[in-house]
Amino acid sequence: MKISIQPKAKKALIFIGAIVILVIVVLAIVPLLHRDSAMPEGGTTPDAQAAVIAASAFYTLDDTVDPELWATHICAYSTEAGCRAIKKFFAPSVEAMVRKNRIQTGCVVTPLRLVSVRGNARIWLVSVTIITPWPDLKNPIQRVYVEVEKMNGIWLMNRILFQQEAIAYLTPTP
Known about the structure:
Number of domains: 1
Oligomer: single chain
CATH class: Alpha Beta
CATH topology: Nuclear Transport Factor 2, Chain: A
């Protein structure tokens, strides 16, 4: 007896299988990325490394991937409050921008300086260079403020600061 699967059903099964594999890989890799050592490879502190990883996830966009996976991926590097902020404030507008511009891009993130320390929370200024910028992007190099917090021994992102919040950390130039 030969079992035949309709092409649409076959594509759906392959898509679901790919998502399951992606989730398994992410769940396997996340603990490795969140090791809390005194000074990890390359001399980057754990809090700076958390800011870099979260900003990298935030600015890696792909219109061929389910939009919910973008937020889920960032949430793997975020506090619960950070995950809620990503889903509520950023996900809808990022999804619309990615779909409109058919964006498929990655980025290079470099920590520039620590700008604030408040208890277990720190704010890092990072430089984000978009690898394949889309036509509407005015500047492929962005300076972004990322708030991270140490929770249960692990540094996680609370949020990417809005421009209005970042003004407090801008230093006037002469």
